[in-house]
Structures are given as C-alpha cells and as structure tokens.
C-alpha cells in the first residue's frame, strides 16, 4: 500500500457545511414529497432526495475512513449524525465498509461472476437486489435486527456453508461479533429518533417518505457495485474511476473515483481527482450500469489467478487506526 497522499489535509469546515446543507435539503425533499400538490412535484422531490442523500452517504463514507474531520471524536460524532439519514448504525457501516476493503474482488465479492459450484438462482437474486435497490433495505432492517436480536446473526451467517461464502454473509456478519453491541444499539435508537422526529416535525406521509427512500435506494445501490463490476480481480485495483457528468460527481463527492479511493483510502474526497490514473481505462457509469442488467457472467479462466488476497490485511490495518 502506497503512502502517497497520506497527511492530505481534511476539509473539515467544508464537510460540515456540506453535511448541514445536504441534511437540510433532504428534509425539504421529504416535506415536498409528502405535501406536493401534484405527483410530478412529489416525484421530482424524490429524485432530488436520491442525490442529496447520496451526498450525506458520501460524507458518512468519509467518516468510516476517519477523514470527515481531523478529530477522531468529532469525526465519529458527525458520522453518527450522517448515518441517521441512511438510516443505519455508524459502527456497523464502518465495520462492513472496512471489511469490503479487505475482501474487495476476492471470492467473497465477485457478485458479477458465476464461479464453479455457485447457486445461480441465489447469485441472480443477489445481483438484481443490488440493481433494483432492494439491497438498501437490508441495511436498516439488519441494523434493527442486530439491535433487537443479536443472536440472529449466528443463524444468518451460514458459517462453513456454500451460502455463507457465496453471499459473503459469513465474513461480513462475523465482523459484528466483535463490534460493541451497546454502541450499535444506541446508534440505531438515534437513527430511529431522527427519522421519527422528521416524520412528526414535517408531518411526513408514509407515501412521501417511501418515494424518497425508494429513489435513494435505486440510486445508491446501483453505484455500490457499478464501480466494481467487471473490474480486475485485485484487492486494491479492483475498481473503476467511472466517467459521469461533473455535477453528478460533485453531488456524490467524487465517489465515482473509486479506484483512486481503493488505492488511497486515506485521501479525502476533495483531492481524489489527483490520484486518478489517466493510463487506466475509465468506463462510463451508464455503460457499466446498463451492462449489469444483463446479469452475472461466467468467470473467465484467464482472470482466476489475479486475486491477491494477501494484500488485504494490510489495507484494513492501515484504516483501523
């Protein structure tokens, strides 16, 4: 792992302004989706929400890497606030995301390829749940389930089974066994309190809330794997610096520069553009996303040997500081 870019200053004030502004805009979109006079207005509000809540998520992503604010205490506090609009637990999100850096493009994260012995129905169900936005539902539901019934994870992990390996459930849910359960529970309560407070204060309708989060789920979920689909099977290099319209990239805080992020996870979003390699192919987000609808592909024999799992522990070790 290169140390290039380490020590890059964190844009703390800008991040705080963006977090407050984006969360305020999200509240406005939720209100408009609930009280708009026409369906056209409500739908536009939901689409706008799907983008501005991705700004909030991108700031949450910064917090998981400790680069939302230079103070660890403030960083984690702001991360917990940002997580309430997902909604999820910040501690759970950090555990899962750093695990993603550990296992990126290994056998546990090759959802785009059929491997020998894979259950094809399960693979397709997982794949299209990502594309449809259903993947998002598992995050808040899973956080609540863990908070209420933590023992449920043992039954869902599928430890030692093909299911547990193919879905990644064993590796990801296993990370929560060492996570601070009491912290996760109060973070879930915080998220529930914020969501409930918004519903009461803004007199939100179930339909308005659902429209906004359905749009966000599709927008967020699709990008989570479009920036990895068909990329090299390499823990650090297995991602794309996707091409997308500049205003969209700005709203996602350069999240589309995902290869640069995986190679330099300690670099704040504002400076990721400096680390985009012009010599590496940069497919368009739309092209990759459309190709994903054709479904997973057979694993090419020529790429089987390109996964380098021995690099993964180093990646996570540098992030868990």
Describe how the helices and strands are arranged.
Layout: H1 12-35, H2 39-64, H3 72-83, H4 90-103, E1 113-114, H5 120-132, H6 134-148, H7 152-156, H8 162-167, H9 169-175, H10 181-201, H11 206-226, H12 246-251, H13 258-263, H14 285-292, E2 297-298, H15 312-319
Parallel strand pairs: 1-2
Helix pairs in contact: 1-2, 1-11, 2-3, 2-4, 2-11, 4-9, 4-15, 6-10, 6-11
Keywords: Membrane, Transmembrane, Transmembrane helix
Organism: Pyxidicoccus parkwayensis
Transmembrane segments: 12-33, 40-60, 133-153
Provide a brief overview of the structure:
With 321 residues, the protein is mainly α.
Oligomeric status of the shown chains? single chain
Strand fraction band? Answer: under 5%
Question: What does the overall shape look like?
Answer: globular
C-alpha Rg, in Å? 19 Å
Instruction: Please trace the helix and strand order, writing H or E for each element.
Output: HHHHEHHHHHHHHHHEH
Largest sheet: 2 strands, parallel
Poorly predicted regions are 304-321
Number of strands: 2
The total number of structural domains is 1
Alpha-beta classification: mainly alpha
Number of helices, where a helix is a run of at least 4 consecutive DSSP H or I residues: 15
């Amino acid at each position: 792992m290169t140390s290039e870019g380490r020590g890059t200053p964190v844009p703390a004030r800008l991040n705080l302004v963006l977090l407050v502004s984006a969360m305020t805009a999200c509240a406005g979109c939720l209100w408009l989706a609930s009280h708009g006079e026409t369906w056209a207005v409500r739908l536009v509000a939901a689409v706008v929400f799907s983008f501005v809540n991705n700004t909030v998520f991108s700031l949450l992503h910064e917090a998981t890497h400790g680069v939302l604010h230079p103070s660890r205490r403030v960083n984690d506090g702001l991360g917990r606030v940002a997580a309430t609009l997902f909604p999820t637990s910040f501690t759970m999100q950090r555990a899962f995301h750093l695990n993603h850096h550990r296992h990126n493009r290994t056998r546990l994260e090759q959802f785009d390829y059929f491997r020998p012995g894979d259950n094809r129905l399960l693979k397709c169900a997982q794949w299209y749940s990502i594309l449809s936005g259903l993947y998002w539902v598992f995050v808040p539901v899973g956080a609540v389930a863990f908070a209420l019934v933590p023992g449920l994870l043992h039954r869902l992990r599928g430890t030692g089974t093909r299911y547990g390996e193919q879905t990644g459930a064993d590796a990801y849910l296993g990370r929560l066994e060492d996570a601070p359960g009491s912290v996760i529970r109060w973070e879930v309560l915080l998220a529930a309190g914020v969501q409930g407070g918004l519903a009461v204060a803004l007199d939100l309708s179930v339909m308005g809330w659902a429209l906004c989060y359905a749009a966000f789920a599709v927008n967020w979920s699709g990008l989570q794997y479009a920036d990895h689909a068909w990329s090299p099977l390499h823990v650090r290099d297995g991602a794309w610096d996707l091409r997308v319209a500049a205003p969209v990239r700005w709203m996602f805080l350069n999240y589309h520069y995902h290869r640069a992020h995986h190679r330099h996870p300690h670099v704040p979003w504002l400076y990721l553009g400096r680390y985009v390699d012009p010599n590496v192919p940069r497919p368009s987000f739309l092209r990759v996303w459309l190709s994903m609808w054709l479904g997973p592909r057979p694993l090419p024999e020529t790429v089987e040997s390109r996964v380098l799992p021995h690099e993964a522990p180093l990646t996570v070790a540098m992030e868990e500081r």
